[in-house]
Amino acid sequence: MRPVGVARAMKRAETKTLAGAGDARKSTGIAFGFGAVALALHVSSRVRSCSRVPAPPSTSVTSATPAPYLPSAPPSTSVTSATPAQYLPCKTFQRTRPGYFFRLDGAQGPGYYVDRVAQSSAATSLVSPPTKKKKEPQTIVTPWTHVGKNDKTTAEDRALLALMDRMKDLYLRYVNHFLEEGAKHHKNLGKEPPTFVVRKNIWDLQCAQLRKFLELAQKHGASESDPRVLFGYHGTSAENADKIFLEGFSPKCRRCQGAGAYFSGHLDFSAVYAGANGAKGDILLVALLLDGHRSAPIFGDQNLRGHAKPLINVQACVFGETYAMPLARLRGF
Questions:
Q1: 199 and 328 in contact (C-beta within 8 Å)?
Q2: Distance (Å, rounded) from C-alpha 264 to C-alpha 272?
Q3: Torsion-angle region of 240 (φ positive above 0: left; ψ -120 to 50: alpha; else: beta)
Q4: 43-52, 92-101, 278-287: the lowest-pLDDT one
Q5: What percent of the chain stands above pLDDT 90?
Q6: How far apart are CA 191 and CA 194, in angstroms?
Q7: Per-residue confidence at 294, pLDDT binned at 50, 70, 90?
Q8: CA–CA separation, 107 and 122 (whole Å)
Q9: What is the DSSP string of 185-243?
Q10: Radius of gyration for the alpha carbons in the chain, expressed in angstroms and rounded
Q11: Beta carbons of 289 and 228 less than 8 angstroms apart
Q12: Is the pLDDT at 74 greater than 80, yes or no?
């Protein structure tokens, strides 16, 4: 038999051993319990994450993470665009692209490959310019047009045309001097250059006023070699200038005694009469037939052709109204 003290000691040790085993089982159960809870939470979160649709990735420039793959935009088909890309990578078919076809098993991988046949036909249709039909030249036949066998111009009209061309040549060589003189006059007064106005149908043989003037010149022996014409200035009011442009000079418009209208070879002298009584007036550039000179010049040399330019070489003189034809005028005097 064991001693009582030894038996009690062994019983206490056994009790502690059983208690320690219970505590271990208890702690293991708790640990298993926490593990089960954690596993359940993990599974639940995975299920929720799988059920949600992921948000589209941000493609802003300031995003730190690089943007995922985005298919390239369709190539431009304009004439000025650069050569289209031969291959556009794309994992899935997005949409039709002009000039391309989609392949999953392409040589460079899935994507859009250029259709050379379509590209060449499109480029040809865009680059080639449309053909324009050439317009056939039209020949307009008038009584004053020379067209060979169909020429209907009479010998008299041919002579008038030749004389008109000679006068026109003199006018074109002198009209710039007329403009310069008007601008110089206004500049001395601190004013802007005057406005230049040309009479309508100035060199049209169908104009009654021009034809009458040319026929009168022919009667006095004017020809292509000697048109017997000089130029002069006539200052008057704007209202009278309008009327003279339309109807020409007329004896009915005389405001003083004399045999005709007054003209000058000096623009400054005519400007005095253009701005008479403080009203605005014009200065007319007039073609004068020498045979219409009615009186000795009031001032200056009697030789009207003494001027280096085709301009009368006097300050004032008188011509018959039918021997004067207005050509142009300067406004604003």
A1: yes
A2: 11
A3: alpha
A4: 43-52
A5: 33
A6: 8
A7: confident
A8: 25
A9: HHHHTT-PPPEEEE-TTTT-TT-HHHHHHHHHHHHTT--SS---EEEEEEEEEHHHHHH
A10: 54
A11: yes
A12: no
Q: How confident is the model at residue 56 (pLDDT cuts 50, 70, 90)?
A: low
Given a cut of 60, whether residue 41 has pLDDT beyond it is no
The residue with tokens 């007064």 is 189
Length of the chain: 333
Residue with tokens 């310019």: 129
> Residues 65-94, buried b or exposed e (16+ Cβ, 10 A)?
eeeeeebeebbeeeeeeeebeebbebeeee
Give the integer Cα–Cα distance in Å for 68 and 89.
13
CA–CA separation, 190 vs 202, rounded Å? 32
d(CA 57, CA 165): 84
> What six digits make up the tokens of 76?
């431009």
Domains and CATH numbers, the chain: 87-120 (no CATH), 155-331 (3.90.228)
Listed in sequence order, the residues at least 6 apart from 160 whose beta carbon sits closer than 8 Å to its beta carbon are 205, 211, 214, 215, 218
pLDDT of 122 strictly over 80: no
DSSP designation for 107 = T
| Spatial distance between the Cα atoms of 93 and 111, rounded to a whole number of angstroms | 8
| Least trusted range by pLDDT, from 85-89, 230-234, 261-265 | 85-89
- DSSP lists the bridge partners of residue 87 as 113
Cβ-proximal residues to 98 (8 Å cutoff; 6+ apart), any chain: 74, 75, 77, 118, 122
Q: What is the rounded end-to-end Cα distance, in angstroms, of the chain?
A: 161
The packing angle between helices 155-188 and 267-274, to 10°, is 80
Please give the distance of CA 251 from its chain centroid, rounded to a whole number.
51
